[in-house]
Structures are given as C-alpha cells and as structure tokens.
Specification:
Oligomer: single chain
Radius of gyration: 18 Å
Number of helices: 6
Number of domains: 2
Helix content: 40-55%
Length: about 150
C-alpha cells in the first residue's frame, strides 16, 4: 500500500491533494505527521494551517482575549497547545483522547478509534475558522472581547 501511495500522481491522489496550494490542509501539532508523510510516502505538504502553531502565535499577540461563549479568558503565557485544551477553551467541549496513543497500525481499526479520528478532524475545522478570525484582527487590547459565532459547529 505504501508504494502504491508513493507512486500515485492522478489529481485525486493523496499526493496531489497535499501538494495543492488551492486546498488548505488543517492539522494540529503537525511536525511529526509532516516528517512521516515525506519520509514514508514522499508526500510534500503545501498550504498547511497548524492550529497549535496558530494558537501559539495568537498568545504572543494578545495580552488577554475574552470569548463571548461564557467569556473565557485566555492569558498570554498559558501553555494550552493540546487539541483537547483548545477544544475546551474555544468550543466548550471535552474531547475523549483515550485512543490518541493506541496502535494505529492494527487493522481493522476499532470503532472507538474511528470515532476518535472523526471527532479530531471535525472539531479541528471549527478551531481553524475561529483561529483565522482571531488572527485577522488588526490589534489586540488588554480587555478585548471577541465575538465568535458557535454556529460553526453545526
């Protein structure tokens, strides 16, 4: 299978999708994933948005940011890099991370593993839209309140 993926070049292939500048790839803490994609599958990634790095960037810009959904304060130097913590702050939800350290080489994947992967990617897109909106701001004041619609989750 690995060799089959390495040699695919048609427009719908994994390689073509990851190489396309017209498709934004959204990942969280993507350093290891990118290394494996290149080393194992010879796939380069263009137009990547990493939610962990984006949040780190926002933390450096804003002394405080208040979010209307319960007015949650995010302090400048708090280390909240995990996807689980970002989902808790931005989306007000608890993520089940039980299968994060499972052996993903085992086939077939258990139903809990499939649900875990589905949830991670589903909530990652909602975080992406919220972080993009935050980064588009011209400036941050110490008492800024940022109104973000939670309809992105629906």
């Amino acid at each position: 299978m690995r060799e089959e993926i390495r040699t695919q070049d048609h427009p719908e292939s994994l390689r073509s999708i990851f190489a396309s500048p017209n498709i934004t790839k959204v990942m969280h803490g993507s350093d290891t994933d990118i290394k494996y994609l290149v080393a194992d599958l010879n796939i380069a990634t263009i137009n990547l948005f990493d939610t962990a790095r984006a949040f780190n960037f926002i933390q450096r810009l804003a002394p405080k940011a208040a979010f209307e959904s319960g007015t949650i304060l995010v302090n400048k130097h708090v280390n909240l890099m995990s996807l689980e913590n970002l989902a808790k702050i931005f989306l007000n939800l608890e993520m089940d991370k039980y299968f994060q350290v499972a052996d993903w080489r085992v086939r077939p994947l258990m139903s809990g593993m499939l649900e875990y992967a589905r949830n991670d990617s589903h909530y990652l897109l909602a975080l992406y839209f919220m972080l993009i909106k935050l980064m588009a701001r011209d400036s941050f004041n110490s008492q800024d309140e940022i109104k973000l619609p939670l309809t992105l989750l629906k």
